[in-house]
Amino acid sequence: MAAETKKSLGQAIDAVIDALGSMDESSRLIAVKAACEQLNIPLETERTPPPIALAPGAQPPTPPTPLPPSGEVIDIRTLKESKNPSNAMEMACVVAYYLENHAPEKEKRSEILRKDIEKYFKQADFPLPKVPGQVVLDAKAAGYLDSGGRGKYKLNPVGHNLVAHTLPRTKRKKS
Prior knowledge:
This protein has 175 residues and is mainly alpha-helical.
């Protein structure tokens, strides 16, 4: 038997894909599990985040408060505390998201009005901007809200993604 040359990582991956590509999903899973067992590689079934290295004496970050699924009523303050908006535009998006997804049925709607800024910022204990009505205009200009006509603004996909998937922002360690 001739000496086999060592494969690069890419070549090894290609070989695995070639070998498993024509098999059905169940057979692929069995083959991968068996190969991992043979090579003493632990096979993770659930992804867990890597541990966070903390400075001596530092406290680990507090995870955000989990929210109930869309459609369940929660108060605006709880949503604000969970999402931790860093400025009035982000808070306006949180208010619009709240009104669309978590407000009580009688308050629920898909638009945010200029007057909602003062009402819901106060309820959420978020600092009021100097000119409350300007916030929705700024959020529209930033691409988070779309005009709904006559002083109404609607959370667009960018604003929705900001609240649903980006907030709260986590602090990144500078390298």
